[in-house]
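To: structure subgroup
Subject: Chain for Friday's discussion

All,

I'm putting the inputs and outputs inline so they're searchable in the archive.
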Amino acid sequence: MTDAVTGGCLCGKIRYTISQPLQNVIACHCTHCQKASGAGASHNAVVPTAAVTFTAGEPKLYRDTAKSGNILKRYFCPDCGSPIYSQREKVPEMMVLKAGTLDASNGMKLVMNIWTNSARPWMPLDPAVERHPENRPVPKA
């Protein structure tokens, strides 16, 4: 594959390739993403699960129960702890890839902020970027 989109964890034991280009980044400001990322928000690229191939390592799973009661599967490197992706249990055909794990992110743009009602006061939100106080509708595969 030419122009492959690749990424991985901090220690390099988890590696992946994506078979399609990525353009959009969504920032999630929910308190669970803040805790899981150790930052003011988690920056994510939503991609079909079938487009991602793990080429090295196997992420470990943590099952997180959201305020809604829905299960969010959070996958991370068992060695360095880098968050790699998450999936809603009810939407396994889609993957929420952590944009910070990409090797390069040229051409990508922040297009949406979600769960802004729990955004940290020190986390700037661009008023030109779409925002939702809670979640947005589930994207279609």
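Points worth raising on Friday:
The domain at 5-131 is CATH 2.170.150.70 (Metal Binding Protein, Guanine Nucleotide Exchange Factor; Chain A).
The chain has a mean pLDDT of 92.

D.
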